[in-house]
Structure formats: structure tokens, C-alpha cells
Amino acid sequence: MTSTAPTLSVENLQVTAAHRSGTTKPDQLLRGLTFSIAPGERVGLIGESGSGKSLTALAIMGLLPDTLTPTGSIRLGGVDNADDTDLLDAAEKTLSELRGNAMAMIFQEPMTALNPLMRVGDQVAEAMTQHRTADRPDAAARALDLLAQVQLPAPAQTARAFPHQLSGGQRQRVMIAMALANNPRLLLCDEPTTALDVTVQAEVLRLIGDLVHERETSLLFISHDIGVVAGICDRILVLQDGAIVEDGPVDQILTAAQHPYTRSLIAASDLTKVDERGRLFTGGATAPATATATRSAPDTHVPHHQVRTDLDESIVFNEVAPASGDALIRVRNLGRQYRGRGGSILRRGPAISALEGVSFDVAAGQRFGIVGESGSGKSTLMRLLCALDTPTTGSIQVAGQQLANAKERQLRHFRSQVQIVFQDPMGSLDPRMRVEQIVAEPLRGIGRDETRDRVLAQLQAVGLDADVLQRFPHQFSGGQRQRISIARALVTRPSVLVADEAVSALDVSVRAQVLNLLADLADEYSFTLVFVSHDLGVIRHACDTVAVLSGGRIVEAGPTAEVYDRPTHPYTQQLVAATPTLSEIAGGTP
Amino acid sequence: MTRDGQLPAGTRRRRPEARVRAGAGTRSGNLVVGSILIGIVALAALVSIFWTPYNPEGVFPQELLLPPSADHLLGTDNFGRDVLSSLLRGAQISLLVGVVAVGIAVLIGVPFGIIAGMHPGPLDRLMMRGNDVSLAFPALLLAIIFGAAFGANTLTAMIALGIGSAPAFALVARSGTRQVMSREYILAARASGKGAWFVGLRHVLPNISGMLIVQASVSFGIAVLAEAALSYLGLGTTPPTPSWGRMLQDAQGYIYVQPLLVLWPGLAIAIAVLGFNLLGDGLRDRFDPRMQVQR
User: Has residue B24 got a pLDDT over 60?
Assistant: First the structure.
């Protein structure tokens, strides 16, 4: 084993998809990647969806589906009897000996990567017995040791747990333990923290960084999030449409990127950087600007920074004084309980409280952010605000309509006043409907011609042409689908727009475009924006007031800048500290 | 069975998408073979409306139990009837029973399943437990009971088979509805104030139509088989209308004299049932996202 030979060297890797018809030109998905990873080096691979990031990892692992053909060469250095073997030519037997042994991979979704019917301790041990690196009793002992190394609480007990009994972060730690069980030379991580909450993500990232550093394992870390990659890697490869457009040390990439694509990617990722008109950098051509220079915050209502100090304290956050007009949304002591599992025909399951004692106001024209991690109750709150669910306790008044115990008949006007933009741009559009029908859905009581005119006008307002009317959702990209979603939400000219993680599933450059669009439209139509998200960066950019939700209660609320710069509640402090930001890492303006 | 044509050609999605990729992967062998077999049966039924070699109900006492010849391609039966003509005409009855029975099953089962799926909670539980009870009665048993109670003929057989197949449609429709109802476009529709009728007809039904078509194809095969069984037992199509099941029963008595007489109707039933099952499998490959390769 020589220290100078690279752990992984990839030369001119091309992946092509054979076309079924056979006549047209085959699809080239990776176009000649050449890179190498030195022992102990940590390399990040970034790119947007469809750029070929995951394909690269699968090609290295030899896990490409049969329909895709790789050419070029991939060599793994420093491994007995695998030196100078081209992994692309290697027999399946050789590959399966290397997989999980000399090279290991961590996937995005730990729940699907783990066997649901096997105790996690056994799964970790199996990684070793399979490659005969340890015999059975040894493996069990080493598994416990590994579970302790990935900082799982009570390793002995955790080892006996099944995957579904663990949280997402814990499952990912088990995956890490499995991947590192045989001390691989190369660790591949494919978006390992994308499915995790921000605070958990920070811990898992630190753990991967530390373990890889200790063992001098080479790391290939794939992510769409530059902030995450910058925090853990030494070097960054930027992938665009199946080709590496830039390769350099983290600092250099962040501060002095050469390639225009890299620069636009970094600019779009940074939600704290805006141009002189308060718009995010989108990289590509900027959308036609209709926005005013500075947007006017509601002038009568001034939000205060409030913090919950006692769990049972009853505070009305962001209270709109009667003097400054009526609040558009007025929520008092709102609670929602669900029946948990464990009930039977005779006995109801235990009550689970998703929201408790939530009180806040939103003034007309405010941009109100609700931030929280999974399980914080933010989705429940969103549903309650849109009258898609009924509260167990408390009252909720939106646009002059009391929603608690309201009948659907009474909500007719309300339905046109409050609209939602959802997270998943595929799931929120009916795949069997044409765009025209989708956008026209909220309209009622107007003629066919007028409907069509309004749909068209609305599509144009979100930057889509008339020729999209007869197309189906799957013919659009994620960003375009989200524009259709926004058009549907705004076609009735609502007074409240609820955005539920509206940009979380989008690529960074598209995210910036959609956020700019939302800001422009909020100015143009002067609706009140309620933005629900787990992403603090997005809320910080899009909202002027923020409420932090934790465990079904609001723990802190106030003007966005103030809450972020001076977080007071311990949970908010933890949340702000855990969010990876580009500016801090780069230490300067890109 | 190969599913080579089923892999998405290009980019890897972050989530496996549950949508039908129209026009892709049509080279599923099941689909083609199934379609051909059913095409043969349908063609036979169609031709027999206008033309058969002989009158399938005509009795010729001088031509009993003839072996296949140029005059009678498949021979004649114990009444001197031309077997080919009877087979062709019998295809009509089989398809008619299939269409009507599946139609009745769809009309009863699908609305039942959609309503249950759209109302999770007590109503869903009540409806589905009721469905389980009716599922416990096989369609064939129901048809025998109906035949005994209301007289054995094609109509009672069709109605009984339809009612008996409905619970399976209710199950499929309900599970599909539950999946669709969890999607965000349903929330968007509700947030737009759309009522249950609109959601059920415009969102749920189009999105579960794929799995319903699969279920219909499989049920069609079962209905054809059940009609044959009923006729064999003398509870289905009444003489003199030709029916594959009764041809089988008639031939049974002459199995040592003219064994080929058993083969022809048996083969016809097998082709029709196999055709619908293969078609169902092929359609499932195309419509059911769980059967597609997930990555």
C-alpha cells in the first residue's frame, strides 16, 4: 500500500442509456468524468438534479441498472488483489467482495436501506460476517462497539431494536456503522442528510467528518447543498449535465469560482445575498422584474420579539393591537389532538397532542414564517389555517371567518380567500389533468371564456406561456410545476397564501427563481404570505416575521432578522447554530 | 416474463414516481399474447353473429359423432351438430357473460370502494367489514344459489357473477382511493372548496382507472370460467343455445367414443381465460407502480 497512489481514480467515465427504439442517438448521462481521490481526502460532488451525481456513485459501486452502459475506467487503489483491476470490467463476484468491504455507501433514505425485519445490531454484524472479516461472536461485539462509535445512546439496547423503532437520525447512524464496519478505503455518501432535520443533520455531518478523519477513509460526498458539502469536504467537484465543470479546493470554489455555472450555483444557494432590488441571484437569465424597489412592510403593525420562558405560559405572539386594524389571522389557544395507535374496537388509542396552546396574530400584508422540524406541528398548523382539519380546542379566525366548527357551506367565501402552494411539485398536481383544468380548479361560478382568460393571465403572471394549457404535469420540470401550483393558488386572488415547504424539493437555482416570483407576486397582488418551512434560510429570506414551532408550541417569535441574529430560546439557538451557511464558511463574498 | 422495457430511460428520480408512462414499454410479452388470444375469441364471436359453417342449433341425426373432416372441420357431436359452429357461437355467450358480469361488478364495487376510501374512520370500517362478509361467498356459489332460487339461465348467471365479483372491485377501488387521497392535489382541491363528488369523479376515478382495468381483465377471465362451470352443471345457459361449458358436459358421455369432443370446448375455455389473465398481468406491469423496477 503506497500512500501516494489515489484511493479512487476515475478516468473518462461515460454512462449511456441505450434507447429502446435503437434508431435515435443514445442518451449520454455521464460525459467523460475524470477525477481521483487521494487517501484520506474528502471530496464533495455537487450538482442539481439530473446532473448525474447519483449515477457516478452507482457506477463506482457497480450498481448501475442493466439498461445503462458505463465505459472508461474506475480503479480502486490500495486494496489487495484489486489493484489495477478496472471495476467496470470486474466480475460481479469481485465487486461484491469489494462492496461493503473496501468501499461502502450510505444512501439518502436509511429506512429503505435497512432491512425492516432484522435487528440493527445483527445488520451491522452481518456486514462483517458476510465479508468474513470477523466471526459471529466477534462481529456481535464489534457491532456494539461500532454503534457506540456512531454515538447511539445505549448501544446494547439499540442493537436489539428494529429499524422502525429508531428515529431518522439514529437510522442513519446505524447505516454509518454498517458502512464503516470493515474499515473501507472509500466511503460514498449519496445525500445522506437530505432527509434529516437541520439539527440532526448537523450532528450526523459532524459524526461522518470525525469518523472519516480518524480512519483516514477517503470520502466522496454527494449533495445538492453546497453549504453541507463545504462543511465536510476539502475539495469540491461541480457536475453539470454529466460533466465536471469545476474541480478545486473548497475555499477556492466558494470565493473564486472560475466556471460561470459554479458561480451561479453558489449565488443561488446563498439566501442572504440579494441584488439591489432585494431579489435573489438566480444564475441564469433574470425573470422580468415587476417588483417595486423596496417592498413596504405593513406600516401600522410592528412585530415584537417574544420568547416563551415557561412551557405552560399563555402568550399571544405577534399580537396585532386593535388600534392598528384587525388581524387577518387570529389564532387563540389552538390545540389539535390525534388518537394514537394502540386502540381497539372497545378502547380508543392514547391522545397525542400535535399542537397545544398556540396563539398568534398575522396582520394583513405581513409575510409570516413558521419554522420547525419534523414533528413540531407545523403541518398540522398549516392544515388548520386552511380549514383542512378541525381544531380540538381553541379558535382560529382567518379572513374574517371563524374556522373552528365551521361547516363546509359557510366556508365557500373563505375557500377563495386562502390558497396553498405545496412542497412536492409532482404530488400537488393531478397527473391525469391538463394544466388548464388544474389552474381553473379553484374558480367557480364564471363562464368558460372568462375562466380560460383568467387561467391564461395567471399562467403568464407566473412566467408560463399559453402553449402549456393542454399539457400534463409530467411534461414539466420541478420549477415549472411549482409555477403551475402557484398559478392555481393565485387564480382566485386570495388574501392569504399559505406556502407549505414550497421550495424544499427544488434545485437551488430554481428555488431562487420561485422565491423571487413569490416575492414579486406578493407585492403585485398584496396577499398575506404564510410560509411554513423547516429551512431557516428560506424563511429568513422570504418572511419579515417568524414564529419558531417546537413540540407543538410556539417558543419564539418576532421580526426575522432579530430572531436570527439574537435567538433567545435555547431551541432557536440550537436551530440557528445547526444551519449550514455559506458566508460563514467562505468567510467572504463569493 | 421480461420487464426489460420497463426501466425509465434516463435520469434517476429522487422519489420513485407512481405514474403511468404512456407509450413506453409496450413490448411486454404478456400484453401482446393476451391481446392476440382475446382477439381470436372476440373475432370468433363477431363472425358467428353473421356466419357459421352450419346452423349450430341444427340437429342432423345421420351425422352423429363424426371425426374431423373437410365437411366438419372439428367433427360433429352426439346430435350431429357441427362442433366448429357451436364453438364460434359459444364465444358470444362467454363474452356476453364476461361483459355484463364485469359491468355489474364495476357499477356496484367501484362506487362502494371509492366512498369507503374517501371516508376513513367508522364508515370505512363498517363498509369494508360488510365487504369482507360478501367476499366470503365465492361468485360461483352465489350463482348456484341464484340459479336454484330464480331459475337457471344466462341472465341469472350473469347477475350473480356480477354481484359476486363486486367485493373484489370494492377492495381495489378502496385501496387505490386511499393512495390518491393522501396526495397533495386532493388537499389543493379541498382548499379550493371542491366537494366530494368532484374529488371522487375528477381526481380519484381517473387516477385509479389503471388498477381497475387490470382488475376488470382478471375478473373477465374468472367470469368466463364461471359461466362455463355453471353451464357444465346445467345452471347456466339453457339449451339449445351453444355454450362451451355445456358442450364439455355433453361430450363427457362420449369421451371413449369421440375424445376430441372434450378437447375443443376445453381448449376454447383455456384460450379465453389465459388471454384475459395474460392481458391482466401485462396491464398490471404497465399500470401498477409497485411492479415497476424501483430504484
Answer: no
